[in-house]
Description:
This protein has two domains: about 5-225, Rossmann fold; about 230-365, Hypothetical Protein Yjia, Chain: A,domain 2, CATH 3.30.1220. About 35% of the residues lie in helices and about 25% in strands. It contains 15 helices and 15 strands. A hairpin with a 3-residue loop joins strand 4 and strand 5 (about 70-75). The N and C termini lie far apart (about 60 Å).
Amino acid sequence: xxxxxxxxxxxxxxxxxxxxxxxxxxxxxxxxxxxxxxxxxxxxxxxxxxxxxxxxxxxxxxxxxxxxxxxxxxxxxxxxxxxxxxxxxxxxxxxxxxxxxxxxxxxxxxxxxxxxxxxxxxxxxxxxxxxxxxxxxxxxxxxxxxxxxxxxxxxxxxxxxxxxxxxxxxxxxxxxxxxxxxxxxxxxxxxxxxxxxxxxxxxxxxxxxxxxxxxxxxxxxxxxxxxxxxxxxxxxxxxxxxxxxxxxxxxxxxxxxxxxxxxxxxxxxxxxxxxxxxxxxxxxxxxxxxxxxxxxxxxxxxxxxxxxxxxxxxxxxxxxxxxxxxxxxxxxxxxxxxxxxxxxxxxxxxxxxxxxxxxxxxxxxxx
Length: 367
């Protein structure tokens, strides 16, 4: 078996966060020879003289974005083919992948880890998932809700940004020059409310040393997945019916579960007047006027969204449902006689709230 010796670093972050600027700065550094894979060759606009001087490589490989209720990335065969081609160059010391701004990093990392486990002779391994964070945007939209009319219409953008922050083992806090020291500390505290483990590196214009990105512990998928406050709440509080769990940061969280559906109008009114003490909420819900579809509810700061996802299994036609249950009898382990697999399950995370008050608001929306 070949020794896995070429680290892969995935760079995520929403459009405009500064991923390209970070990569430009990394390519200018002459410490190590790296290769960079990008989605859009035009966006990187690297001066050829920089590449000639440093010996670095830039290549373009398409990643497929599939819309099926959530945003995810599927790695195409040519993506891994290009990874292997680059890693075969014994002078390449690391490969950086600049992911699409609308990519969900857990999907990319999961696909890569699966490839790594299934391919015995690969020389590459996943070193890190880095999230580039626009601290000015976090301050305005996540903490203080100062948005333009267009941004209000795209309120679910901040939820995608939260997903990228939750699933990483390193956060690059970019554009710190746009905030005061006090504002930056407020952003850090807000980010720690939802991501309590990943290291934070403040910077301006993506100016980060290459060694900082490479000289660290190797990526651990399960460990990083458990970093987010949402996952911590599910792990620690799912069976706690008496009180919310409180961690060392003063963040409390609980999981709300209820079989009965929400009234759509009542729930929408709750979202419009959402309690400010809740900093993050995420989970699956369903409405009394739609027994067919699973709805994904997400909230981050002052932004919230409800997205129609797939169908509940119990909503399948009888001729499809019976064979499925026969093949997978475990499906009926948590099956309700009336509602089937339909269930509201939402994680709520915040500071200084009374769980009983939040639960009452939720039950006021239940039919």
